[in-house]
């Protein structure tokens, strides 16, 4: 029996595409919401979940930083997907026939140039792949969708223009979630550790809590704050660092962080994806 990986969106969405690329022998499970995609892993309907966490243009994906710590799931891997949008319509449609273009609000915002050049009216849809499905079902040759290439294959649409995104560096990072942690052994190649923490209510607590990463030479690649429980004073932090907790530098840094924190929880230790190397700045 095939193993199952859940994702949020309709068949043909970018999350479906990365599931197919990274886990070609697994069965993708489309879910209506992020909560449903998390729940599928929690209740055993899926063995893994593929969840977008940030985009190089749009920034962090809303709600994930709240859902992830509360889910009890663990990050066991990461994937990066360069984002490409195709302008697609019903077979036989000439590009001059198109009057409206439908897609998710972020996709429309990331393809402004082609929309302006063709003089199209942008119409917001709930999902990029859902927009393609709706165009296919409409039978209307004045409608087009901005969607991933996979959606054209699934819904029988013709691609009118390829790779119409404004920015070539448009990339989404996904995390792979599982019920059980699966850290790689230490000293086994580049590793990322993700964790959440809340500092104690002390003067300069955050400054003191993070000092251990500097003194131990640990590279912190992400630090984001967000409110919890609706309180302006209750701030939780999500952080990512290079390294493995069983390696001495990171172990010392986390010990120091724990001393100044009233809560610290590691969400995952996992291999760094090779894509990270390609995005490192060149040494001066």
- Uncertain ranges: none
> How do the SSEs run, as a string of H and E?
EHEHEEHEEEHHEHEHEEEHEEHEH
What helical percentage do the residues reach? 25-40%
Strand-pairing-aware structural class: alpha/beta
Task: Describe the protein in words.
- This protein is an alpha/beta fold.
- 29% of the residues lie in helices and 35% in strands.
- The protein has ten helices and 15 strands.
- Strands 1, 2, 3, 4, 5 and 11 form a six-stranded mixed sheet that branches. Strands 8-7-9-6-10 form a five-stranded mixed sheet.
Present the secondary structure layout.
Layout: E1 4-8, H1 14-22, E2 27-31, H2 34-42, E3 48-55, E4 59-60, H3 64-71, E5 74-82, E6 86-89, E7 100-103, H4 105-109, H5 112-118, E8 121-124, H6 128-138, E9 143-147, H7 149-155, E10 158-161, E11 171-178, E12 191-199, H8 205-215, E13 220-228, E14 231-242, H9 248-259, E15 261-271, H10 275-278
Parallel strand pairs: 1-2, 1-3, 7-8, 7-9
Antiparallel strand pairs: 3-4, 3-11, 5-11, 6-9, 6-10, 12-14, 12-15, 13-14
Helix pairs in contact: 2-3, 8-9
Quick tags:
single chain; 284 residues; alpha/beta; five-stranded mixed beta sheet; 29% helix
């Amino acid at each position: 029996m095939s193993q199952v990986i859940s994702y949020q969106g309709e068949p043909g969405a970018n999350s479906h595409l990365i599931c197919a690329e990274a886990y070609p022998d697994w069965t993708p499970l489309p879910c209506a919401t992020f909560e449903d995609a998390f729940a599928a892993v929690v209740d055993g309907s899926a063995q893994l979940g593929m969840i977008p966490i940030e985009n190089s243009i749009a920034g962090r994906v809303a709600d994930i930083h709240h859902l992830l710590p509360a889910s009890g799931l663990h990050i066991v891997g990461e994937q990066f997907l360069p984002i490409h949008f195709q302008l697609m319509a019903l077979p036989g449609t000439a590009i001059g026939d198109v009057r409206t273009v439908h897609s998710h609000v972020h996709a429309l915002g990331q393809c402004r140039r082609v929309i302006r050049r063709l003089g199209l009216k942008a119409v917001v849809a709930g999902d990029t792949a859902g927009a393609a499905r709706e165009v296919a079902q409409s039978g209307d040759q004045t409608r087009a969708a901005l969607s991933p290439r996979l959606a054209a294959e699934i819904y029988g649409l013709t691609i009118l223009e390829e790779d119409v995104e404004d920015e070539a560096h448009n990339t989404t990072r996904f995390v792979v979630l599982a019920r059980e942690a699966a850290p790689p052994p230490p000293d086994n190649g580049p590793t990322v550790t993700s964790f959440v923490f809340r500092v104690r209510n002390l003067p300069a607590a955050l400054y003191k809590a993070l000092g251990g990463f500097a003194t131990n030479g640990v590279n912190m690649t992400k630090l984001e704050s967000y409110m919890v429980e609706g309180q302006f004073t209750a701030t939780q932090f999500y952080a990512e660092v290079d390294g493995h907790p069983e390696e001495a530098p990171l172990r010392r840094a986390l010990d120091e962080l724990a001393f100044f924190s009233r809560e610290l929880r590691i969400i995952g230790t996992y291999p760094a994806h090779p894509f990270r190397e390609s995005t490192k700045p060149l040494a001066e």
